[in-house]
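User: Sequence recovery, please. Input:
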């Protein structure tokens, strides 16, 4: 009898599947998932110093919404930062002042918004960086959009807590790991808090 095991999806297949699945969610489903993930986010407290610098991203392409991360930081005395991208460089981070509506933003070449606030900090000055994923496996291998920004950043930030923020359906059994792939330390979804 022939072996009929199906090959694991390629990174390209995962990207198409996850984007399609994310786009199919209603605004209500996104909001409910974000609220549930915020309840998981509280578990980060035990892993963070007081007054932590926490970098996160603005969801703009169907990712799990991140708006609530600012209020989480404010309630717990942490400072929230958003990433600034420069070509082929690790990310740097600029602070959120007040709430997102009070922080001046500009659109950069990749179509995302980034702050124009100061002071700009290197990724190594972040205590935690919450990053987007297309998919992540149970060992912390992360599949991103393919630009390598977070892998380059994480390669230079050994003490920073690397946190994947995603819908639970984005957690998959296993992903192939390339030599440049940096694993995450924590996975937070709308259903689970995982320490790989």
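Assistant: Recovered sequence (196 residues):
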């Amino acid at each position: 009898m022939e072996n009929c095991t199906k090959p694991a999806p390629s990174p390209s297949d995962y990207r198409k599947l996850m984007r399609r699945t994310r786009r199919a969610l209603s605004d209500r489903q996104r909001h409910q998932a974000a609220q549930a993930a915020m309840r998981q986010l509280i578990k980060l407290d035990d892993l963070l110093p007081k007054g932590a610098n926490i970098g996160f991203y603005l969801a703009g392409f169907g990712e799990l919404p991140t708006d609530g991360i600012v209020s989480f930081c404010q309630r717990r005395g942490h400072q929230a930062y958003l990433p600034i991208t420069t070509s082929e460089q690790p990310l740097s981070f600029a602070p959120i002042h007040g709430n997102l509506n009070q922080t001046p933003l500009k659109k950069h070449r990749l179509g995302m918004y980034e702050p124009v606030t100061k002071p700009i900090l290197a990724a190594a000055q972040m205590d935690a960086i919450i990053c987007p994923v297309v998919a992540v496996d149970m060992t912390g291998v992360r599949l991103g959009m393919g630009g390598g920004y977070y892998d380059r950043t994480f390669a230079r930030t050994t003490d920073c807590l690397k946190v994947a923020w995603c819908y639970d359906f984005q957690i998959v059994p296993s992903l192939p790991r390339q030599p440049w792939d940096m694993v995450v330390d924590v996975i937070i979804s709308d259903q689970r808090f995982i320490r790989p």
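The chain has a mean pLDDT of 90.
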